[in-house]
Amino acid sequence: MIRVEDQAQGLRVRFEGEERTRRTRGGATWTVAVTSGKGGVGKTQVSANLAVGLAQQGLRVLLLDADLGLASLDLALGARPRADLVEVVRGEATLGDVLVPVARGLDLVPACPGRYEMANLDASSRDRLSDLVRELAESYDVLLIDTGAGIGASTIAFAAEADEVILVATPDPSSLRDAYAMAKVLQVRADVRRLHLVANFVGSSREGLELRDRLQSIVDRFFVLDLELAASIPTDREVVEANRAGHPVILGSPESSGARALQSLSHRIGALFRKEATC
């Protein structure tokens, strides 16, 4: 049973016995979640490069690795965490102990890979972690959340707290199917009305538009949701090499086609932030 109530402080969404609050701006740090219907679509690379690109625009960015059990943002950014996020959840350490400065204006809250208990946090532990991150994020312009892949409870809960959600998908049929599943769950469970689609591993801008149109046509059959094509990122060997080397491609190979597309995405999101900040 799903019940959505409009309240003065935001939208409260109830499902499966849990209660989540979809926060509104209200002067709080602007939050963007990057998510995907399945793994292997390049979500984490998009998050890492987007975070760096936003910081290059002079924004203070806090990047949260919310793929709590299969974390990899530290590898994508070449960061070396000093502490374990499990200790934070247990109350044995603060987020300050875990925080890793990555670049000027960009700090990372890394998760811990291969930890079953983190991948299956109960609602109270997840809420406590979210509250701690929100408190820390007050000194930043943007909180960027790299969620886990798929429609698990933690992924939906983190996405529900975002002001904007970026959905990463590829032309692969299984990715398209799972992207639709993610879009449906976000709309129904978290009242998300707009998604920014990143078409990854495409052969051309036209293929990115076709991916967006295919997904929108499926969505339109069953519910109302606006899909905006935020970026078409081409298949680029430089992106693969940057991933292997442990650094964002927009830093290692800024003139590559993949880097230019990711930089364009960061400018689009940065412009959206500035527009929201003036409202």
Could you give the order of the helices and strands? EEEEHEHHHEEHHEHEHEHEHHH
The average pLDDT value, as a whole number, equals 86
Low-confidence stretches: 1-26
Radius of gyration using CA atoms only: 18 Å
**Biggest β-sheet description:** 8 strands, mixed
Kindly report the oligomeric state of this protein. Answer: single chain
CATH class: Alpha Beta
What percent strand? 25-35%
CATH superfamily: P-loop containing nucleotide triphosphate hydrolases
**Shape by Cα distribution:** globular
Question: Which structural class should the secondary elements be placed in?
Answer: alpha/beta
CATH topology: Rossmann fold
> Count the helices. How many?
12
Share of helix among residues? 40-55%
Identify the strand order in the major beta sheet: 6-7-5-8-4-9-10-11
Number of strands: 11
Structural commentary:
The chain contains 12 helices and 11 strands. It is an alpha/beta fold and 279 residues long. It has one domain: 3-Layer(aba) Sandwich (Rossmann fold), CATH 3.40.50. The strands form 2 sheets. It has an 8-stranded mixed beta sheet with strand order 6-7-5-8-4-9-10-11, with helices on both faces. A 3-stranded antiparallel beta sheet has the order 1-2-3, with no helix packed on it. The relative contact order is 0.17.
In short:
The chain is an alpha/beta fold and 279 residues long.
Keywords for this entry:
alpha/beta; Rossmann fold; globular; 25% strand; 11 strands; 279 residues; 8-stranded mixed beta sheet; single chain
